[in-house]
Each structure stands twice: as C-alpha cells, then as structure tokens.
Amino acid sequence: MKMIAQGTAVSQDYTVYELSGIVKSETTRSETSVSGYIPSGKSNMAGSISSQTTRFQTIYFKGEGGKEHAAELVDLIIPCTEGHHLTLWGVNKGFWFEGKNHTTDQSASSKYPLINFTMPVKTIKRSMFAVGILFFLLFVGVLIDEVSIIKVIVSAMGAGFLGLFSYLLFVIPGKIVSVMRSKQILVSKNQHASS
How far apart are CA 21 and CA 88, in angstroms? Predict the structure, then answer.
C-alpha cells in the first residue's frame, strides 16, 4: 500500500492510498436490514416496510514486494477472481472508493465510502444538540410562568419547526460540504494515481 496524495479538503485532512496486487481470493456477502410497522386492529390502514441492503466484498491479494493484504469493501463490488491484477484506491486506510481490474479492464467506484468519510457528522450533531438545549431552556421558561394547554401545543409546534429548521440549517449544508470534499479528494486521486 502506498500513499499517493495528501491534503486538506474543506478543513478535513485526508490521505489517498493506492493498493495494487494479484488477487488470491475474494468473498462477497450482503446484509439487509428491514424496518417498518403494520398497524394493528381492524382498520384498513396501510403499513410501511422498508429495507436497506449493504454489500461487502473482501479481497485477499498479494501486493508489491510479496506482502499480502485483505481489503474490506463496503457497497463497492469489483468483479475479480484468483490471479487477476487489481488496484484499489481509498482514503485514510479503510474507505475504499474505487477499484480497477487490470486483467478484465473493468472499473468500479462507489460514492458511499467517500460520503461516509467526508460528512461532518460531529459538527452536525453538536450543532443540533446546541439548538435542542436552547429550545429546552425556552420550553422550561414557558412552563415556569404558567402551564396551559395552548403553551404546550405552541411549544410542541415550535419543536417540530425547530427540528425542520435544524435539518435545513445543519444537515443540508453538511451534505454540500461532503460533496465538495469528495470531489476534491477524487481530483487529487486522479492526479496522482499510477493506473
């Protein structure tokens, strides 16, 4: 594994790695999580069920200099079999986002590992926590004066509005920052990749 690029993308440090070698073996698996609800009773109300499948591929191969490696890919499947020459690109040793099978000339990439790496989750959680504390203090202040059903309803509506406002204020800009970071990392990888 060799480092091919290093930098800072919108205030986040990153290192791009390239891992190349001959495939010894590979395994693929998937995990599906299912969630939802079905209303009980005799009503004709429809329920809701959703599922999400995550695909995994583990590739064992012998790299340059004879060193053996195992790479765990998440939501990135690269068609390969024993004896194929393969190159992977990833950020910070573990977020593999692109691969090329030189034997078959097939490439695969996935945006999800990069998005998971570049999303400013801690900043979003801290910001939403701060907004929640401010709303809580406001709500407690309202209840201390005088408790009435109107004030409770207004406070509940305020909580809903605040939740939407927090989402718009923190999550959407977080996604924009993530896309900007991802694009900068990809440009850096493309400038320095050996294949």
Answer: 9
Domain boundaries, the chain: 2-33+50-113
Task: Please identify which residue in the block is written with the tokens 């959680």.
Answer: 125
Determine the topology of domain 2-33+50-113 in CATH.
Answer: OB fold (Dihydrolipoamide Acetyltransferase, E2P) (2.40.50)
In the numeric block, the tokens 């290093």 are attached to: 6
- Angle at the Cα of 112 (from 106 to 117), degrees rounded to 5? 120
- Kindly report the pTM of this predicted structure: 0.69
Residue-wise pLDDT for 143-186, tens only, equals 555 666 666 677 677 777 777 777 777 777 778 888 888 888 88
